[in-house]
Amino acid sequence: MNVKRGYGSSGTYRFSKRGQVTIFIIVGIVIVFTFAAILYFTKSTVTQAVSDQTEPLLAEVPQAFQPIKIYTENCLEHVGKVGLLLLGQQGGYIYPDLVGKYSSAEPTNSEGINLEPLHIPYWHYNTDPNEGNSVTFASLQPKLSARDDPALSLEAQLGRYVKEQINQCLNGYQPFVQQGFTISPESISSQEATVTIGENTVAFLLRMPLQVQKGDAEASLEQFYVKIPLPLKHYYEVAAKITEAQRNYNYLERQGMELISVYSRKDRQSLPPTSDVGYELFSPLSWDEVSVEQRFTQLLVSHVPLLRYLGSENFYYSTFAEGNRVAQKVVDNMVLPLTGAEDIAVDFDYFNWKPYFNVNSDAGIIKPDHLFVNFGPLSFGTQQYETHYDASYPILVTLNDDTAFNGEGYRFVFALESNIRNNAPAVGGTKIEPYPRSISSLACAEEQRTSDIIKTIIVDSFTKEPLETVKIGFTVPDQAECEVGVTDKDGELASAYPAVYGGVINLIHPDYLTNFYPIDTYKVQGSKEPVLVGYAAAGVKAPKVIEMDRIKTIPITVQKKEFKKCVTPLTCDHLDVLVYKDISCEKAVRQCFLNGGNTLFSGKPALEFEVDGSLSRVHQYYFIDSAKDLSDQEEAVITLERMNGFHQEVQSQDFTAVVNAKGKESVPVQLVPGVYKVSALVMNKQEIIIPKDKRCFQYTIVTRDQQDCFDMAEQKVDGYLAGSMQWETSETYLTITPEQLYSSRELTFYVPAQNLGSVPSTIKVNDETVPGRVVEDLQVSSKIAEWSKLPAARASLEPEFS
After folding, report:
1. Tens of pLDDT along 120-159?
2. 189, 582, 629, 651: least buried by Cβ within 10 Å?
3. Is 0.70 topped by the overall pTM?
4. What's the domain count of the chain?
5. What is the dihedral of CA 538, 543, 549, 555, to 10 degrees?
6. What count of other Cβ atoms lies within 10 Å of the Cβ of residue 584?
């Protein structure tokens, strides 16, 4: 029994001893892994702390040397702040000259904007020469972290700047040396400055070993650390957003092209259109490239600041009055739909820097392609306006935080470049196609102008003053229309012409009627002096000139001179005895109608006709030679067709004027001096009733008079042609002289017109009712037209100038 107990006791003891060893091993392993884990997480925490700018662990400095530490850290903070300010003012660069050159004369052929002494690199720009046929985009946007760029990142530049400037600020610690301190720094090469840009701060760590001693006390100082509160990373990210938007969406170029589109039109004071068409015989419009460039830069100065960052502190939204959709759309297009800058003011500026500007001008002059056709009575012109714009210009972008540096403010400034090529945003990496050019006829080439010098002097037909900017062209028969030139301030132009038979010199000015001067230039040979063409004219010194007639707008009033009507009816007696029947009629008393009453007229009527078979037999119209205004229901249309001018040596462009007058209104009409064919119509919208009329036709059978009758039904006419006038022969043409036209303020035309409204529809003759109006009255207007050609009638209707 004891043996069993002893055996059991001994076995238990041996097992317990081995278990303790196992436990120690396990515990040891746990401790090792725990220590490793602690080391790992400690390292991770330290790494995270550094990245989050937790202040590094610095050796404690004895109290006696604390002022030296504070002095050094103040210098570090001062130098760091200056570096931050300089970096912000130069697009993220303290040393911008390391990345390129900056020209104030040609900012778009350099790497940035020169605001001496500041140089601001482009974060997006074209590196190829502006005049080249390609565009290559690049960016001088610096990296943020030294890990990405150890040389020119923001962190790297700040570190270099601190290393270069810290000793100047420390000034050899002179304030402390004077107090008995002995300070022995190591060599400058041993100094190291590390900058870390965090979310809201910029940390500066300076390693600069110092041996400091005063009396018996001494210490070693190695690291100095300051943290400046500034969200530089935030500014950088907003600037990067703006740059990325420009790179992807070309909003600067789109704004530039929109300005060109809105402010271009066929007007010398505007920009020349990128695409438009005119149909004038000649357009005197032209633009010089220098003036167009100046207008464009002025538009940039005033409109670039209207670009706005949607999610910025200074964003505002402009609205225009209802209906001004174009202006509202233009302003809306200037909003960048970006967010994340609610605490920053974002501004875009263009300060009148010299742009690269080029258009498809001809020796600096921009003008439309012109086509002029002169074929007998047919002459017309068209102008094709097609201006191709190339432009490059710098834009300054400023991010402004007024709350930074405790209210001192901070600005982050960078530059972008806008590049327009051939009326569109430039595309990087592609070849730019050349502009389309107009092809002139070979007949108009300079080498084909082999005649002697032909001189023309152009004057105003009334004032006799010389006319400037008259466009002179030349028609080569069946071949081409050549542009010769424009008259100077003396109205003169001297030039050689293509030598041809049957040529025509075209004289065109927008304010004057176009003239054509036929000439055989082939015969103009062998003269030593310029050959003057034209004709002699009174009032000018030159022996020969060509006059041009100015187109004048003159108010025209139309009045009527009326035809009044008289009716002479018939009265008839019927005698019927056995085989004898007699129907005898005789004229009754004449009835005349003036102003609604009966009036007797003397003299011969202007128009007269008889109505067979009607008791309303004889109708006479008398012309009343006194003018009256048209009624509200009357409308006159007068057509004036110019047949010729006053000099057979020249021909003129076809010219027709139409006067459409209602009531008492005055109508402005363009006229020129000349000889005119005139036609006129007068419509009366008054409702007229033509009464029922019994028409009888008499015949005799042996001794009995018989008659057949039929009834003409009543007619209601809503309006009728009241009058007409035709001066269509040389004897009746209307002549308008320059003295008459240009010396007058108004012109009055007189038109003849019948007045059916003054005639009652029926009249009484004895006890019978007879029509006062007959259907034949509606044909009187054609008779009036024939009457108007008579010399006496023509004289009474002569228009009057006043």
Report:
1. 999 999 999 999 989 999 999 999 999 999 999 999 999 9
2. 189
3. no
4. 4
5. -20
6. 11
